[in-house]
Amino acid sequence: AVFAGALSRPPPRRVDRLPRSVSPPTAAARPRATGRRRRLAAAEEDGAATTATTSEGDDEEEIPQIEIPERPEHVRVVDAFLPAADAVALRGVFDAHNDDPRRVHEHRFVWDYWHVPGQYTQLRTPAADYFPEEQFEALEEALLTYAREELGCSAMTPVWLSNYVDGMRQEIHADVPHGPFAFVLSLTNWDKRRFTGGETFLLRPETLDYWRGFETSSVVERGAVVQTVEPEFNRLTVFDPRIPHGVNVVEGTRDVREGRLVLHGWFMDLAPHFSGALTEATCEPALGEILPPLYEALGTLPRARGFLVVKVNVDANGRVTGTEWKADTLVPAPAPNLPDPTEVRDAILLEVAGTFMDATFPAAGAPGAVTVPFEFD
């Protein structure tokens, strides 16, 4: 792990121990020596808070629960991403540039007809040059704010504006080199569309691990192996670009005003994000003590690939009050004699969350948070 995060998020599970089948010397997450280590507690049947006695005395301490997602989240949909007026204004710029097909002006000649035989066919143009500066800066800030707070990314690639009309598509591919998260923000008038196709499609994780869950009695059709995301207006779709994906062929209109219109790019440059009363300067010494032992412990666990982004909530006195998984695309790497993949994920996520739950940050006089990304390869 190095320092640098679905159509629906799987429900988390509360875990109170490391998986029994992941144990030394085959790479267990070894508990760190600490007198006040908060034991990970499962929720009681009646939903009441769980408490335990620390080793430093007889006082009972409420034990925060650590929730472990059952599966990684490779696709995330955020509807109504931009303020409605901003999304409508961006779409309005495009409509104004294309209000009359007989009218000739500079904005009609900015499109690249990108055609790679058997792979890509679309119209595209750099969004920064297409929209008025003020509008594009607001769009860029909204995307970067989301990237910092939700994905642990501090930058993004230049944003493309693409249009798809009859016959245009993207065949299946993966975008591994570009960044840890791809995004598509739709400006398509989806509810009034006069075409078929245009959805983003992605291979399901079960398809990428097809034989593990194969059942001879199951009917296998497109929906069982591929998931699709409709580009509804003002919908942001964020996905793991390692997943093979594409765009279904658009059929039925040759008018760009009626086509699939989307903004897209990749979030990149993993970096911690500080909010509330916490700042990089005040947290740097604490992170310098927390992270090296954590990296060492993670290095003893079975290999995995992907990204984890954890938000660590801290109270005014510097005490960690809880952790949140902001993004998780972590998949155990295939290897002989490994425990169940779920148990490998449990061990890694528990090690990360448990380390931060044991940590102390500088007292800032007010609550704050630090969002920390991890890359596994």
Low-confidence region ranges: 1-58
Q: Give the CA-based shape.
A: globular
For the residues shown, what is the average pLDDT? 85
* Strand portion: 25-35%
Topology overview:
Elements: E1 2-3, E2 12-14, E3 51-53, E4 60-62, E5 67-69, E6 75-78, H1 84-97, E7 112-116, E8 120-126, H2 127-130, H3 133-151, E9 153-156, E10 160-164, E11 169-173, E12 181-186, E13 200-203, H4 205-208, H5 222-225, E14 226-229, E15 236-239, E16 245-247, E17 260-270, E18 273-276, H6 280-298, E19 304-314, E20 320-328, E21 331-332, H7 341-357, E22 368-376
Antiparallel strand pairs: 1-22, 2-5, 3-4, 6-15, 7-8, 8-10, 8-11, 9-17, 10-17, 11-16, 12-15, 12-17, 13-14, 13-16, 18-22, 19-20, 19-21, 19-22
Structure description:
Strands 6, 7, 8, 9, 10, 11, 12, 13, 14, 15, 16 and 17 form a twelve-stranded antiparallel sheet that branches. Strands 1, 18, 19, 20, 21 and 22 form a six-stranded antiparallel sheet that branches. A two-stranded antiparallel sheet has the order 2-5. It is α+β, with helices and mostly antiparallel strands and 377 residues long. The chain is globular. 21% of the residues lie in helices and 29% in strands. It has seven helices and 22 strands.
